[in-house]
Amino acid sequence: MNGFEDKLWLRVRYSETDQMGTFYNSRVLEWFECARSEIMRKLGIPYVEMEARGFFLPLIEAHVAYQGRARYDDLLELTTRVAFEGRARLRCEVTIVQAESRRPVASGHTIHAFTTHEGRPQRPPAWFIGLVEGKLTAPPPLRA
Amino acid sequence: MNGFEDKLWLRVRYSETDQMGTFYNSRVLEWFECARSEIMRKLGIPYVEMEARGFFLPLIEAHVAYQGRARYDDLLELTTRVAFEGRARLRCEVTIVQAESRRPVASGHTIHAFTTHEGRPQRPPAWFIGLVEGKLTAPPPLRA
Amino acid sequence: MNGFEDKLWLRVRYSETDQMGTFYNSRVLEWFECARSEIMRKLGIPYVEMEARGFFLPLIEAHVAYQGRARYDDLLELTTRVAFEGRARLRCEVTIVQAESRRPVASGHTIHAFTTHEGRPQRPPAWFIGLVEGKLTAPPPLRA
Amino acid sequence: MNGFEDKLWLRVRYSETDQMGTFYNSRVLEWFECARSEIMRKLGIPYVEMEARGFFLPLIEAHVAYQGRARYDDLLELTTRVAFEGRARLRCEVTIVQAESRRPVASGHTIHAFTTHEGRPQRPPAWFIGLVEGKLTAPPPLRA
């Protein structure tokens, strides 16, 4: 998978644990979201700016493999990779490990459509393709 | 406190527990929200209709006293009471007990402003006051 | 897929929405959990009893396809099916539709291991296999 | 209020927003928890170590005043202050502002008991009092 890669570190919050003593399973999708937020910022287009420009990236698919435990306050390392899947879908792969022991915690991916605010499909703009493929470092200025 | 009273039952979800083996503290505010949703429906004006009519009820204050444990799958009983606090604020009191043992779990209140979608304060409409005070059972029809 | 089927209805909570105006993506995994809780109860073995008997069912995989919107207070219908995948894994498939319009919202599955409290793999007990395959309606009594 | 003060910065996650376009109200209690985690670390006793030493700090009260909006990806600054309330309760005050504009977002406090793992009240240890009052910088070593 080509594309753009980024890393992020975060600590497991108490609110993210459950009575089994590890993180509750749905939190992984929230951490994937944090990973996407940061990789978009690194790409040069924070997701808030995407939305301001009229591009929304709703999930159409999510997949998670649970590999190990993570307890409250554990420091996790997330490695994120984003690339196109076909011409109109974005694929985001995330791998989560314990930052110190390197033990795997979870990995998976999300697939995103490009839509308008109302949810209608639209093509990704050329500048966004350029950012993901490393041919651009910033989007064109927003006209006022 | 005058006003309107309602009851609701819900079970503690696994996602609402934490590693201490009881519910995580912020869930109580989510349960309070469920309680408000149901009491609004019983009042005759589901909260979605409030928003459709241009009235928003953002929280301006929340208070919770934590009184006892509740584990995954425990059945909780919520008693809700809604009343005006002054002329432009709504106060919602909720008491949560274990449905079977009647042991207290948490109690508290939220205070809500009346605002427009943009967050500007506005007066509660006369029909809403009528519903809360038990003088009306339904809002006037929405003009198309 | 053979196995046992169940239905559950729930309303989208305000806390489950996000700024796009629909449910936030990770909530689907929480709803899947609610669906599993109910199907276990219908099977004759509430999940709390599974844990009390020393059987834990941690997720090893989750997959979600997002198909449509669901707004605050929408009534959702969840259809759940549970069956064995091989001899030591449980597969739980859930389909979520808008209860009134029947429009699809999300569908997917989770795969679960059988472990001890400490997370060591163990075989599912014969009585559990009997419940899932419809050959039993209750587990054997728990010895004190 | 005497005691110990700390600062923490965090960004609003997409999962923390709701359909009103601002953060969902219960998230404030989760952010308060993050603030407590960090101030405990700065005090010299990460909360995981407190639990490892047999001291639990369950909430007995929470209060939040909601003062302003915070949108997805906004950078928030949390100022935390921890002090004793009487001899056996800890009070944690948190103020949240927009990091750039300094606009208030929310403020409030939580009050915590000292309990055993089973939830029985116990006195805070002398070393913990020393840490909060700034007379110690680290707890005594844990005996193996």
Account of the protein in words:
- The structure is a homotetramer of 144-residue chains.
- By secondary structure, chain A is α+β, with helices and mostly antiparallel strands.
- Chain A has one domain: Hotdog Thioesterase (Thiol Ester Dehydrase, Chain A, Roll).
- The first copy, chain A, has three helices and five strands, in the order E-H-H-E-E-E-E-H.
- In chain A, strand 4 (89-98) and strand 5 (104-113) form a beta hairpin.
- The longest helix of chain A has 17 residues, at 27-43.
- Chain A is elongated.
- The termini of chain A are far apart.
- In chain A, 37% of the residues are buried.
- The model of chain A has no long low-confidence stretch (mean pLDDT 95).
- Chain C binds chain D through residues 14-15, 17-19, 21, 24, 26, 71-72, and chain D through 14-15, 17-19, 21, 24, 26, 71-72.
What is the secondary structure topology, with strand pairs?
The structure is a homotetramer of 144-residue chains.
Chain A (H helix, E strand, L loop, with lengths): L3 E8 L15 H17 L3 H6 L6 E8 L8 E11 L3 E10 L5 E10 L12 H7 L12
Antiparallel strand pairs in A: 1-3, 2-5, 3-4, 4-5
Structural class of chain A: alpha+beta
Q: Return the domain count of chain A.
A: 1
Give the quaternary arrangement of the chains: homotetramer
Largest beta sheet of chain A: what is the strand line-up? 1-3-4-5-2
State the separation between the terminal residues of chain A, measured CA to CA: 36 Å
* SSE ordering of chain A: EHHEEEEH
CATH fold label of chain A = Thiol Ester Dehydrase, Chain A
Give the mean pLDDT of chain A.
95
Low-confidence stretches of chain A: none
Could you name the CATH homologous superfamily of chain A?
Hotdog Thioesterase
CATH architecture of chain A: Roll
- Please work out how many helical segments of chain A DSSP would assign: 3
Helix share, percent of chain A: 10-25%
Shape label of chain A: elongated
* Strand coverage percent of chain A: 25-35%
Query: Mind telling me the CATH class of chain A?
Result: Alpha Beta
Cα-based radius of gyration of chain A, to the nearest Å: 16 Å
